[in-house]
Queue: 2 jobs
Job 1
Amino acid sequence: MRNPLADIMPATSSASDSWIEATVTQVSPLKVHLITDDDPSDAEPIALNDMPLAAGDRVWVQIRNRRLFIIGLITPRETSGTIAGPALTWASTYSPAYVATANVSTPYAPPEGYGFQVYTTQTSGWVWVSVAAQTESTVTLRVFTYDTTTPPSDLIVTLGWRLVRI
């Protein structure tokens, strides 16, 4: 699915340094597809360490002086568990932006000094979720989406969670 914000955000035209995620599309010669681009890059990136790469690997790329440098593999953090996404009631509907607040029960009472990081693992469209507040038994989420029509109440299919030190 194409990012719906891509059409309204100005393209970056500066040659300044930046960091971006990419997917390896070819190993020999090495080629990547930057997540902000519609097509794979024609530039041949430089891998800064001797990591084994394969097509489909997610990598961190630094763009410096218009050259691409692969810094390392993106390794996902382990998920502690998943829960069904909450039903959403869109409280603020300023088309095309929609905002909701949702409460989800914590899987268990976290130890002192710990809380839960909650994130989407499966959605039926583009959505941004942040943790607004936490108690021992509830995590309050702020949910934002950008859509041309009123989004469905089941936009979030599955949430992942992991225990983190706060």
Note: The mean pLDDT is 86.
Job 2
Amino acid sequence: MQGILNKNSSQATEKKKIEIMGMPLLAFLGVATVILGAAVRGYLPSGI
């Protein structure tokens, strides 16, 4: 009985971990995209 409970709880923990890690990853990608876009715009001549 204890083994079944542990297996279920560890699966739920893994799923939560992935969700928690996924959020900052999306935020980081969004921020990185904005920073890269600003940097590219800053380096390119204004005519482009």
Note: The chain is about 90% helix and 0% strand.
